[in-house]
């Protein structure tokens, strides 16, 4: 049997799901359907990765207001370095600057934080 395998992440990040899109190699008519299936799987895996990241980051959401209360306004780099320094227990903070920036942007859009001239502050 010939076809194309599409890969997506299951409920767990280490659970990969492979789907055989059969017939794609036999005739060109199904190539559009194959592309659509791959796009849908890609969108689902991106959404599940984003959901997983959001779930992981909510643990650190509790630390951020405390840091901003103690230090006042903080830059993205300073928040990132402070989380790396103090959040070493389970789960340790191991996110990238881009991941943290995306999460903080969400907190700004939820009006929990403000961003002024590159500095994050608590919303009053």
UniProtKB/TrEMBL annotation:
Biological process according to GO: cell division; metaphase/anaphase transition of mitotic cell cycle; protein K11-linked ubiquitination
InterPro entries cross-referenced by the UniProt entry: ANAPC2, ANAPC2_C, WH-like_DNA-bd_sf, WH_DNA-bd_sf
Domain Anaphase-promoting complex subunit 2 C-terminal intervals: 63-122
Pfam hit, one: ANAPC2
GO cellular component, one term: anaphase-promoting complex
Keyword tags: Cell cycle, Cell division, Mitosis, Ubl conjugation pathway
The protein's name: Anaphase-promoting complex subunit 2
